[in-house]
Amino acid sequence: MRLDKFISSQRPDISRSMVKELCRKGMVSVNGQTVKKPDTHIDESRAEICVNGERISYREHLYIMLNKPRGVVCSSKGGRSRTVLEIIPEEYRRSGLFPAGRLDKDTEGFVLLTDDGELAHKMLSPKSHVPKTYFARLEKPWEEGYAEAFAGGMTIDGNEKCLPAEFKGGKDPFECTLVLHEGKFHQVKRMFQALGNRVVYLRRISIGSLPLDPDLPLGKCLEILHKDVEKLLAR
User: Fold this and answer.
1) What is the CATH number of the domain that holds 100?
2) Looking at the structure, do residues 174 and 144 belong to the same domain, yes or no?
3) Using one digit for the tens of pLDDT, what is the confidence trace for 140-152?
4) 21 and 52 both lie in a single domain
5) pLDDT (tens digit, 9 = 90+) per residue, 177-219?
6) Is the pLDDT confidence value at 12 over 80?
7) When you count CB atoms within 10 A of the terminal residue's CB, does the N or C end of the chain come out lower?
8) How many CB atoms lie under 10 A from the CB of residue 209?
9) How many domains does the chain have?
10) Would you call 104 a catalytic residue per the annotation?
11) Of 39, 104, 106, 115, catalytic
12) Other Cβ atoms closer than 10 A to 65
């Protein structure tokens, strides 16, 4: 791969024209040697590339955990609303990045951003049944029969059948967690509505067996390490 292409692909905040200028100033090195030509070809998987003394590691794909706040939409184009891609730091905005799955505009929590289409397809395929866990606060206290209703595979809006889900009431009678194995439109809200209740606050707290980092503030993100990526698919 060309050196300028490598740097700009791994650091979207550094354009190819910027790489050319950095090379001219002697601020780019390959395996410890200063490189002046931005079109130099490198082995991206083995070479040690540094820009201004900072090493840039090669990542074929990027996986980002975002703690989405309310008012932000899970889309590449938001129109009047801010998108998840607009609130992440510039250095993460590489070409091809997209939200793998959606959360409602008024729902908070874990959204995965990636450029790995194969992983996203596995996550979102109806055949995969990747579990997603939600914390909900309800308008009215939850009732003892909720767990059985969710586990039985609820029918919502008259004829739409849902897969069995796992409900767990919290110590606070207005709070609970719910594990879904599919992703229908506004599903959590519609399921509680079918039980005569209403969701007043909703947050996704895990995908697969990977939990949202409890120390990650709303609107912030972090890169998921490769050893944790497979947890996104764990049932």
Assistant:
1) 3.30.70.580
2) yes
3) 999 999 999 999 9
4) yes
5) 999 999 899 999 999 999 999 999 999 999 999 999 999 999 9
6) no
7) C
8) 15
9) 3
10) yes
11) 104
12) 21
